[in-house]
Each structure stands twice: as C-alpha cells, then as structure tokens.
Design brief:
- This protein has 2 domains: about 40 residues; about 110 residues, Rieske [2Fe-2S] iron-sulphur domain (Rieske Iron-sulfur Protein).
- It contains 2 helices and 11 strands.
- It has a 4-stranded antiparallel β-sheet with strand order 2-3-4-9, with no helix packed on it. The chain has a 4-stranded antiparallel β-sheet with strand order 5-6-7-8, with no helix packed on it.
- A hairpin with a 5-residue loop joins β7 and β8.
Amino acid sequence: MSKTENNSNKKPISRRDFLTLVWKGLGVIALIEVVVIIGSYFFSNKKKEKNNSVRLFEAGTVNDFKNNTVSAFMGGHFYLVRLQDGGFMALSIRCTHLGCSISWEDAKNQFICPCHSSAFDIAGEVLNPPATKPLNYYPVLIEKGIVKVDISNLKDRNSVRKEQLIYA
C-alpha cells in the first residue's frame, strides 16, 4: 500500500465532531481554572501574622489642647478629644453603623455621620441612631507631657466609661 492510498482511507472529521472536541477542550480548561482558584484559596502561602507592634502617633503636648475641644488627626484616623474635666480620648473617625467617616461640627458640638445622620456627643456616645454603639477609640498615653495615641490598637466599646479617659 502506497502512502497516497493510506491518506485517502482516512475519514475527514465532521463539523459536529470538531465542535464536540472544541467544547470538551474548553470544558477541561474551565475545570482547570476552577481547580486552580479553589486550590489557591485553600493552599495559599500567605501567612496571616498578627502584628503586635505598637504604633504610637505623637499628637502634641498636653498644653496644646484646651478643655472641651476636638482636634482632627486624619493621618492617624482619629479625633483627639479633651473633655471639660481635662480627660483625653482618641475616637475613631469611622461611624459604628456602616463605617463612614464622621466629622466634628463645632456649631452643634457633636460628631455627625454624613451617610445616615448618626450623631455622637464629644465623648463618642450615640445621640441619634441608626448607630447603636459609641464610637470606637484608641488608647491614649501621656509621657513627659506629650500626648501619644496607640493607632495599632482600635478598641470596640458598648458604652462610654471613665476608665477610657487618660488624664495628664
């Protein structure tokens, strides 16, 4: 049998068979993609390390802050509050309702959330819902007359308590 006779005996592939092969190939590729995605989710090499390092944000000297004032520190994502009795508190700029950035309004003497109109007093206590919890806070330290805020340690709270304040 010659080479020409051998080629002529081959049956040409039908269009239906060709499309079936294409669809099977695409199915295999899709299956491989799904396996890779699931595998990368469950077997990722990312180590979730809890960073226990303390990051202190130096806000200024105690005398820089008058009683009953609020100072914004957007770089640290907090408002430094000095209450009427001289106590310091660093409040998160995030509303406890949906996490929108709040702003201090001097005229109203309260924090206002622009998203849903929650309002908080100077100590972060809820004045107007839909927020149900007070603003979260960062621990404040006073060392040698310098006010420092631990911005690595956001604290959740259900009420405003005296022990959350720091005095000079």
